[in-house]
Amino acid sequence: MAAFLGVEQSLTGRTWVGPPADQERRAEAMAQATRLPGPLCHTLARRGVPAEEAPAFLAPALRDLLPDPRSLKDMEQAANRLLQAVSRKERIAVFGDYDVDGGASSALLVIWLRSLGRPATLYIPDRIDEGYGPNVPAMRKLAAAHDLILCVDCGTLSHDALAAAEGAEVVVLDHHLGGETLPPALAVVNPNRQDESGDLAHLCAAAVVFLLLVEANRKMREDGQKGPDLMSLLDLVSLATVADVAPLIGVNRALVRTGLKVMAQRNRVGLRALADVAGLNEAPRAYHLGYLLGPRINAGGRIGQSDLGARLLATGDAAEAQALAERLDQLNRDRREIEQRVTEEASAQAEARGLDGPLVWAAGEGWHPGVVGIVASRLKEATNRPSVVIGISDREGKGSGRSVAGVDLGASIQRVASEGLLIKGGGHKMAAGLTVAEDKLDAAMERLAELLDRQGAGQGGPRDLELDGLLMPGAATIELIEQIETAGPFGASAPAPRFALPDMAILHARRVGEAHLKITFGDGMGAKMDAISFGAFDTPLGPRLEAHGGARFHLAGRLQINEWNGRRSPQLRLEDAAEA
């Protein structure tokens, strides 16, 4: 296939790839049939939306897309046991993972129980000392003081730990890939159990918890009782869905769309305080959840105190929320410094090992286990290959992996663990964790690479930049950008459309901060537009565009609305460029 606009090697070394011919035809036919703008039709065609379904897709209604909670196995048992604990005033503990999904899932239950007058013990394990998921000492301790333990965003593979919870009953609410046998629990509600259909495999743990609360509220209505307000909880569900990189398809789109509207009301004191310290001064979008709020909530679990994020999301006290938000913001700054060092070392090691195979990996002594997942994401983005980064301490490595579309990393890591090359490992398609003995590291990574190779990992060009079509600056209006946003929210499995603006003149260019670039460009016929490129001076993009010397360029990026001092203007989030 010919390179788009003839760009075989852009300033960042990538080949530009345009939309397939059949997508072009479907987009043109949709534009004629619906009178929707061409760029929006290109976006819908790429998502596989037929023209007749476009109106419904652009206005996803939660009531139409929310599945019946009882379609998940063990859901009724879980809801009945939860309500029984409430009515009997039993002692309830919530054991959650230390990431955003685990924190939001935990907060959902704590808030729902609190509104019914039932306090719950919140337990988030320490990432360094306890690791991921339930462990035997913690479960023994919780079981001794509670009647019911709810494990959220974890527990599906924790056979020994759940068996240790003698004297208490355990309910698991999770979404990680299940094994051949289930752990000893009263109920395991998980759309990724092996005996599930897979229809709801894209849900994050917070969405599973939300469905449990939907079912519990339904049962309360049947008994003539009014349950807590669930719509107000959707800000937490949307945050978890985006931050956990769950695919923004099906009901997830509706959950995030509705949750963003709830979040914009700023009623949750924890999220309000966090938005303020993060400098979020506009209506939140999916981007803000993934890149502003999510990393700060994660910072506690990564390098600080694991329960800070869950406590922030669950609190109803404004003063506590402010203190927690400021602490998390500082931890996030510290995390960035640690992450930068590990990224540099891991990138150099991975490059020396080779970036053209099915797996990119790196391991280092003393690398902080709280940042290896982020560094794995950086390597994956740079190479378009599944990536694993491992921190080694006391001859044992703890690592995280991130995958690319179409390659199930969690299943492959689970397979390597079952073969004895890993101490433990698991996760889901796009992200997974593992623990490995240092002396088995090379063998484990070699076996993982074999399994990923069978799925086609590494066959995609690491330098391809996919584009949805051409656009001229005069057409990039606020109205068009808002119309394109209705095809969102954009994120995992639903990337925002990327357009090429051909043969542009750089009218003004300046460095912003240490590494960012701000430019104004025009088409030579009067229309002009601003663009921002983050990290441009870490690549050849910044220096070349800054010293453009009057040359003209093809520009590629995503459209966004820039809000500044009450003014709104179209802006290009510049990702790449090529000399015209």
From TrEMBL:
Residues 360-452 form the DHHA1 domain. Residues 91-240 form the DDH domain. One of its GO terms (molecular function) is 5'-3' exonuclease activity. GO terms for biological process: DNA recombination; DNA repair. Residues 321-348 form a coiled coil. The keyword Disulfide bond does not apply. Keywords: Coiled coil, Exonuclease, Hydrolase, Nuclease. The keyword Coiled coil applies. Residues 468-576 form the RecJ OB domain. SUPFAM superfamilies: DHH phosphoesterases. Pfam families: DHH (PF01368), DHHA1 (PF02272), RecJ_OB (PF17768). Belongs to the RecJ family. This is Single-stranded-DNA-specific exonuclease RecJ.
